[in-house]
Amino acid sequence: MPTVNGSDVTKVVVACDAGMGSSVMVASNLRSKLQARGVEVVHTPVNEIPADASVVLCHQGLASRAQSTVPDAVIVPFTIFIGDPAFTKVEDAIVKGTTLES
User: Fold this and answer.
1) Is 8 helix (H, G, I), strand (E, B) or coil?
2) What spatial distance separates the first Cα and last Cα of the chain, rounded to whole Å?
3) One of 4, 9, 13, 16 is an active-site residue; which one?
4) pTM for the model
5) What fold characterizes domain 13-95?
6) Is 16 labeled as catalytic in the residue annotation?
7) Which residues have a Cβ under 8 Å from the Cβ of 14 and sit 6 or more positions away?
8) What is the pLDDT of residues 4-14, one digit of tens each?
9) Domain boundaries, the chain
10) Residues 22-75: tens digit of each pLDDT
């Protein structure tokens, strides 16, 4: 199971599939929260996740595809696009330097 210390995270990928724009909002919100920490937040289709991604946020239905695309990345699935605890989990790990795991 992949793990990463939050203090080592330099890029977070928000991966999507449906193209409805909800994940773009997630990426934008997370970007504004993590920008001051020097963490890049990008939005990409689940099949095009960059190889240098260490943390990937995606809807739970896409988690296995995301893990197949980047097997060494920590995949953090979420169920709702607004206020899901997964977003806080990633943000807190980065801010506090705690461990994130798939």
Assistant:
1) helix
2) 6
3) 16
4) 0.93
5) Rossmann fold (3.40.50)
6) yes
7) 23, 24, 26, 27, 30, 41, 42, 43, 44, 56, 57, 58
8) 999 999 999 99
9) 13-95
10) 888 999 999 999 999 999 999 999 999 999 999 999 999 999 999 999 999 999
